[in-house]
Amino acid sequence: MQQHDLIAALPKAELHLHIEGSFEPELMFEIAKRNQVQIPYQSVEEVKQAYNFHNLQSFLDIYYAGASVLLYAQDFYDLAWAYFEKCQQDNVVHTEIMFDPQTHTDRGVAFETVIQGLHRACVDAEQKLGITSYLIMSFLRHLSEDAAFETLKQAEPFKDKIKIVGLDSSEVGHPPSKFERVFSKARQQGYLVVAHAGEEGPADYVWEALDLLKVNRIDHGVRSEEDDILMQRLISEKMPLTVCPLSNLKLCVVDDMAQHNIQRMLQKGVMVTVNSDDPAYFGGYMNDNFYAIADALALSNLELKQLAIHSFQASFLPNEQKTKWINKINAI
Ligand code: HPA
Ligand code: ZN
Fold first, then answer.
1. Ligand 1 pocket mutation, candidates 277, 282, 289, criterion most atoms within 8 A of CB
2. Residue 331 located in a structural domain
3. Which stretches make up the Adenosine deaminase domain (predicted)?
4. Pairing with 245, which of 76, 259, 294, 305 sits 20 to 30 Å away (CA)?
5. 178 part of a folded domain
């Protein structure tokens, strides 16, 4: 089997995906038109030309602007449904989807509108496509901890639809310690917790996410390699890192895919996984991320299977579901 065919054939779980980052320009234009919202671009080509980021902030500015056309539950449904269709194409059979409620509530869109649209798409994806999913409510770390507390409160009536709490947006200058109290409350309320750390921020932020936020998983975490003691801890605790190769390249976290550390970390025994982060902005969905690292780093077929197995081990699926998918991978 050709290696790209193996990648396509492997069942995979996606654990780091921002639904607002899966907003393709074509759908953005369609929704802007039906909602009669102005966007500062004349064509899809013009939108794509604006996607020349050089760091996280230059991306986030455009990402938040794009999300501003989303107004109604149907818009959130259409956004999520388009992503589920990509999952089906890429054999992503389970996904844990991040959404940023504050990006919408701060514009006057009700929390309920966002969750209704996303949740209905999740239910339909399971019924019609057989794809399972969980929602991760992410706090914007450039905003205050009080604002995160307010969001946690708004989520209370919808707690049965949200399994996980996360932390995203501008990392440097907004350490995990800023959110220690609200994460503690979220854990008390029964949420699992994840946080972006060690993308642009230092390895110290990964320590904080582990020790202060008590996360079950680290998003990105690629800068952990700068700290040997942290690496030993990640390995011994089997702490998952949700690595996003095309994102790292596009945001200049790495200069060249051949220099990406995912293979090195895998070989050292870190529970690394492959994810697409914001695929509409970074040039590809799950399989594109696998193709990019397989080609640039000459990954073996065994390493590719290991990454797919990790994606289920690092997921929040029940154990019997994990075992079912891992057995299927081992049978390929
Ligand atoms: N990092 C931080 N915040 C984000 C990202 C990311 O990669 N994508 C969307 N919000
Ligand atoms: Zn992310």
1. 277
2. no
3. 11-330
4. 76
5. yes
Per residue in 281-330, pLDDT (tens digit) is 999 999 999 999 999 999 999 999 999 999 999 999 999 999 999 999 99
pTM listed for this prediction: 0.98
Gap from CA of 10 to ligand 1 centroid (Å): 26
Residue 40 scores a pLDDT above 90: no
Q: How many domains does the chain have?
A: 1
Domain extent for 123: 3-325
Q: Are 22 and 98 in contact (CB under 8 A)?
A: no
Residue nearest to atom 3 of ligand 1 (CA): 169
Inter-CA distances, 313 with 267, 293, 325, Å: 17, 20, 10
Nearest CA, atom 10, ligand 1: 169
Rounded Cα gap, residues 315 and 300, in angstroms? 23
Q: What is the pLDDT of residues 59-76, one digit of tens each?
A: 999 999 999 999 999 999
| pLDDT > 90? residue 276 | yes
The helix-helix angle for 73-90 and 286-297 (nearest 10°) equals 40
Neighbours of 180 (CB within 10 A): 15
| 332, part of any domain | no
User: How confident is residue 251, by pLDDT bands cut at 50, 70 and 90?
Assistant: very high
